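Sat 14:20. Reprocessing the chain from the morning session after the first attempt stalled halfway. Input below, unchanged.
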Amino acid sequence: KKAKKICDKGRDQIPHNFFANLQLSLDQLYSLCHSFKEMPKYNKHCMKGFLGEKPPVVIAQAKDFKDWRRKNKEKELDYVFRLYKKYDYHFKDLGLKKDQASRGNYTMRKKLGEIKTAFVDSLPDSEQLILKKAGTSFLNEEIYYIPKTNQLYLTLGSAVEVGWNFARWDIVFPTYLKTNVSLLYQGAQSFLTDIPNVWAISPLVGLEFELPGSNNNRQFIFGLKTGYQFSKGEQLTSKSCNESTYKRNVVTCNGVNVLPFLGFSYMELLRVQLYYNWMPQYSTDHVKGRFLLQVGMQI
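Finished this time. Tokens:
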């Protein structure tokens, strides 16, 4: 109570971050003591925490806050940054504004990544690859997951595709957006083809979203591409796809194609994706779309 009176007396002269840190320390103490199996004997605040009491409120944002305890399996840094966000902590040293507490863990991860990159670049070439991957994985696991800014990939299956996705900006935090350019081949030399005498090549461009919920081990992808399909199938008949008297497979037609897709990658190395190849200029009575399942690697 005496300390509270002293703090209240000169409160307008004390930085907001001081009270945010004080509240955080109390929350951590009460949360930790609540998990003890036996009642502590020497610290009154710890005894109150053990009995399930709420910590003293020293900052307005904590007044009706019920989720101050550390959750099961919640990492220590995730817990700290969650409370900092709630208490409007100002990460001034990270270059953030007062209302950007929600970006604290992301910005710290980004700054540490820059330091890691500068350090690794100063090492001999033989040591850089392993340390770069290990350092990135550690930061992604322990602080905040940030996807790679660019990747090359090769996938095989009911089509063969080589592509490159790249990003130079953050769009909607924390969703990450990349531009994707690729070359898609369907036909006799693809492994799961059902049209052995026809092939088609499509240069494609589109957007790829790495969805919230992704982490260092698994990444969930959603995207949309469009391009132009050049097909050998048009040479095998005198009638165009629109004039066909039977429903043709989309791979046998020339024209603009649109490919929505879902994907999954593991450790940012293994890539699995499912496309739907659709040509909107043709009626579904004449041309049927086609699903394309592919598996491959990305670096």
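The beta strands are 150-157, 160-166, 176-186, 200-210, 218-231, 248-249, 255-266, 270-277, 287-288, 290-298.
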